[in-house]
Amino acid sequence: MGAHMAHAPFLKLAGALLLLVAAGRPLRAADPRLVVVANPDSGVDQLSWDEARNLFLGRQKRLGSGLPAAPVEQGLPPWIRARFYRLLAAKDVSEIDAYWSRLIFTGQAHPPRQAPSAEAVIRMVLADRGAVGLLEWEKPDRRVKVVLAFEGPAGP
Amino acid sequence: MPIHSSLRALLAVSLALPGLAQEPDRSAKLSGFGTLGLAWNSNRDAEFMRDVSQPAGATRRLDARIDSRLGLQLDAELSRTFRATLQVISKYRYDNTFTPDVSWAFLGWNPEPEYQVRLGRLGVELMMNADSRDVGYSFLWVRPPVEGFGLIPFTRLDGLDATATLPLGSGASLRLKAYYGATTEREPLDGLGALNFRGDRLGGLVAEVAAGSWRGRLAYARFQSRRDFTPPVSDLAAGLEAYAEALGDPRLAQAAAGLRFSGANLQWFMAGLTWEEGPYQTQAMLARLRSDRLAMPSNWAGLLSLGRRMGPVVPYALWSRVAAPRQQVPDLGSLAASGDPDAAALGEAFIAFIAPGAFSQSTLSAGLRWDFLTRMDCKLQLDRIRSGPQNLLWDQIQPGWNGRATVVSATVDFVF
Predict the structure, then answer these.
(1) Between A76, A92, A101, which is nearest B309 by CB?
(2) Which of B185, B134, B147, B182 has its CA nearest to residue B287?
(3) Both ends of chain A: CA-CA distance in Å?
C-alpha cells in the first residue's frame, strides 16, 4: 500500500482527509483506510460524522444537496462494516444488525445495500448520483469523491 | 430442481452471505427471523404466559411453546416508489396450535424518501417497538416484558398507516406516524373458547425524535369495539340485565354494562426513552391504559432496562411493573339477598370474570445476551416475579397460588 503514497493527487487527498479526522492523528501508511465516497455529481463535498451516521442508519433520507440518499456498504471482508460502525457509532456490528432487523421486519426501511468489493461499491456509486459508499480505500480512485475518511487501528 | 433443494440452497446462500445473496437491485428478497426458546417456571400453581394471546403457559416443565417462533418475509420492489411485503409467522396461538398467520401484507408507496403510505395488514406500534416483538434478535431481552406488552391483545390491523421522517437540524430527526384500521385477532378465554376482536377499530399516532444516542417517543392509540363478547360472557351480561329488571336494581344493570364490550373505548398513552451510547443500552417506558369497561380495566405499566456490552456479551437488568388500581365493582348485594341460588351463582361468576383484570405485578430480571455468530444470538434470563392474587397474565391459577415465581429462560434468536 505504501507505493500509492507516491501519487501526488493522493498525497493531496490524504492531507485533506487529515483535516476531516476528528482525532487529528497522522495516518500511517500501513493502516487500511475506510472512506465514504460520493458520486462526483452528488453536490456533496464532505459529510459530518452525524450525517454519515444518520445516512447509514436510515434516519436521514437525503444528502445535503437534496438528492435521495442511497447508502452502500462493502460487505466483504466483514471487518469493514465492523470497524465502520465501531468508529462511527461506537457500536458492535451485531447491534447494527439488530437495529436493522427491527426496521426490516416491520417494513419500515431497507438497510444499506451491500456490495462484495470496493470496485463493486464504486460502480454502484457511479450508477446513482445519490449513492454514498463505504469502502476500503486501497488505491485512489478519481471516479468518485471521498467525503469522509477514518483512521484507526489496523483491520483484521 | 425440486423446490425444497432450491429453497435450501437459497437459505444457505442467505446465511453465508447476508445481504450479498441478492443482486444489488434487490427487486425481490426473502428474509426471516426466528427464536427457539425454553422456559421454566418454579411455581406449579399457575402457568406463565408470554402474552394474553397464549392459551397455556410454562410450569415446572421446560416449555418450548411460549417463546419459540418463526417468521418468513418476502419483499418485492415493484417500482421506484412502490413495494410490497408479505410476512408469515408461526407461533403458539389462541387455539393451541402453531398455525402460521399472515402478520404483515401491505403495499407501500414512497412518493418521496421522507414519506411512506402503506395499505394492507400492518403491525401495530402500540408500545415502543411492539411491532417487532416477535423478532427476538432485534431486542436485548428473552421476551418483551410481560407487564408492558403481555396485556395487549393487538399486534396487527387491516388498514393503513402513513409515516413522515423529517430532519430537525443538528443531526436530529423526527418520525411521525398515524395508523387506522380493523383489528384481526382472537384471544383465548380460559376454557371458554376465544374472544374475537376481528373488525374492531384501532387507530393511533406515534411521534419519535432521534438525536445522537437518544431516542424519545410519545404514542397514543384508541381502540373501539364494535362487537360484544360471545357466550358465555354475553350470557352473563344478559343474566345480570334480567335480574336488574326483576329485582329493580340499577346497580346490576351497571354491572352488566361493564361486560357489554360493544362500544368499549380503550385508550393508550405511552412515553418512552432510549439512550444507546457506546456500550450502553438503556430504555425506559411508561404506559397508561384508560378503559371504560370492567372486563379490561385501566392500568399503568412501566419498564426500565439497563445493559452494557462487554465484547460479544451484553449483561442486562430489567425491571417492569403493571398496576391496575382497584376498580369500582358494582354492589351485587341484591343478587345474594334475593335467596335465588341462580342469582347468587351469577354474582359469583361475574366477580370471577372481572377480578383477574384488576391486578398488579412486577418482575425483576437479570440476563445475558451473547452474539455468538453473525446474525445469531443466545440469551439466558432469570425473572423474579411478584403478583397479586389475581392476574390476567397467568393461566390455570390454582387456589392458594402465592403470586411468586422464578422463571428461567433460554433462547436462540436468528435472522437471515
Answers:
(1) A92
(2) B147
(3) 16
pTM confidence score: 0.84
- Do residue A108 and residue B24 have CB atoms under 8 angstroms apart? no
The phi, psi pair for A142, rounded to 5°, reads -80, 0
Evaluate whether residue A48 is within a structural domain. Answer: yes
CB atoms near residue B73 (< 10 Å): 20
Q: How many domains does chain A have?
A: 1
A109 falls within a domain: yes
Q: Which residues of B are less than 8 Å from A48 in CB distance?
A: 171
Among A97-101, A149-153, B244-248, B386-390, the least confident range: A149-153
List Cα–Cα distances, B287 to A146, B5, B266, in angstroms.
46, 47, 13
A145: in domain = yes
Give me the domain span that covers residue A67.
31-150
pLDDT at residue B195 in the model? 72
Provide, as residue numbers in chain B, all residues whose Cβ is less than 8 Å from the Cβ of A53. 171
Å between A87 CA and nearest CA of chain B: 10
- Verify whether the Cβ–Cβ distance A50 to B20 is below 8 Å: no
pLDDT digits (tens, 9 = 90+) for B344-375: 888 888 877 777 777 899 999 999 999 999 99
Nearest to A107 by CA among B124, B53, B412: B124
Query: What was the ipTM of the complex prediction?
Result: 0.86
8 Å CB contact of B19 and A102: no
Q: CA-to-CA distance for B45 and B302, rounded, in angstroms?
A: 26
pLDDT tens digit string along B35-53?
999 999 999 999 999 998 8
Q: Give the pLDDT confidence score for residue A4 in this predicted structure.
A: 42
The CA distance from A84 to A76, in Å, is: 13
- The CATH number of whichever domain residue A145 belongs to comes to 3.40.190.10
Residue B121 scores a pLDDT above 50: yes
Q: What is the mean pLDDT of chain B?
A: 87
A69/B118 CB distance under 8 A = no
Min Cα distance A111 → chain B (Å) is 9
Q: Which residue of B has its CA nearest to A96?
A: B138
Domains of chain B: 28-68+121-415 (2.40.160)
Determine whether the interchain pair A101/B173 forms a contact, defined as Cβ–Cβ distance below 8 Å.
no
Domain membership of residue A110 (yes or no) is yes
B95-106 mean pLDDT = 95
Q: Is B191 exposed, middle or buried (0-12, 13-18, 19+ CB in 10 A)?
A: exposed
